[in-house]
Amino acid sequence: KLVDDVISEAKESILDAGLQAEQITCMGITTMRATFVTWDSETGIPFHNFISWQDLRAADYVAIWNKSYTLRTLNAGAKFLHFFLRRKRHLAASVLKFMSKQVTMRLLWALDKFPQSDSGGVVFVPAFSGLQTPFNDDKAVTSIFGLNPNNTKAHIVRAVLESLAFRFKALYETVLTETKIPFSHVRADGGVANNDFLVQLMADLVDQTIDRSCNGDMSCLGAAFLAGLAKGVWKDKDELLALRQSDKVFESQHNWSSLKPLYHQWENAIHRSQNWFPSNY
Q1: Deepest of 8, 214, 237, 239, by most Cβ within 10 A of its Cβ?
Q2: Which residue range or ranges hold the Carbohydrate kinase FGGY N-terminal domain (predicted)?
Q3: How does 186-222 read in b/e, with b if 16+ C-beta sit within 10 Å?
Q4: Are 213 and 248 in contact (CB under 8 A)?
Q5: What is the pLDDT of residues 55-106, one digit of tens each?
Q6: Where are the chain's structural domains?
Q7: CA 130, chain centre distance (Å)
Q8: Is residue 14 classed exposed, middle or buried when 0-12, 13-18 and 19+ CB atoms within 10 A define those classes?
Q9: Beta partners for residue 248, in sequence order
């Protein structure tokens, strides 16, 4: 059924673009990340349904693997190699961690105008499938803290948006700590990035310039670029760089001091939301 759906969508896309199939040199396919299926190599019949990053059936095995002597040796060995050879590629294994899922925030709130100047004390923890880096807690629970009779829906929406920005800051700091690679700027895309308030808050939290792409679906564009490179539509990556266009650049307003208490309050909410579900949940 999935293959039939893909073919149907491809045909509709060709019609919507006013093209003929003969005009298309190649196609690229992008799928949900961390999703896989195994099948019989002779018949092509799958052995099971797709297994996605949301599957928690192997959570107990994952916990055992992460505590295993083999993985700890790999982590330590990678740090040892980096210390003596100073090659950053060795750092990859030093932070290797088996996961039963990978979390990508996809709460597609898109508000052109935001009526609230603050969240009214409301704090939101986005842990719909647990919390990953840097918290790494599969048992964390989605939570809302600080609700009072004076809060409105707008306060909750703002708290949700703030939580996405706080989550970005936590990931950003983790990347800096683990890789020691500084950033001159950050590029943003996706449905969430359409919200100016959110992207500006992200820039302020990490005190960094954020460049939002004109194309909001970079996953599809990336698949098209890779397919085109493979078939010779473009000769190299330099040609692709020239195709990227910036929609808007968000400069940091350097107001971390005023945001710091809010971020620490969110971190406190994170800790209160961790280890909520039992191990066999």
Answers
A1: 239
A2: 10-70
A3: bebbbebbbbebbbbbbbbbbebebbbbeebebeebe
A4: no
A5: 667 666 666 666 664 545 544 444 444 443 444 443 443 334 434 333 333 3
A6: 57-98, 106-273
A7: 14
A8: middle
A9: 212
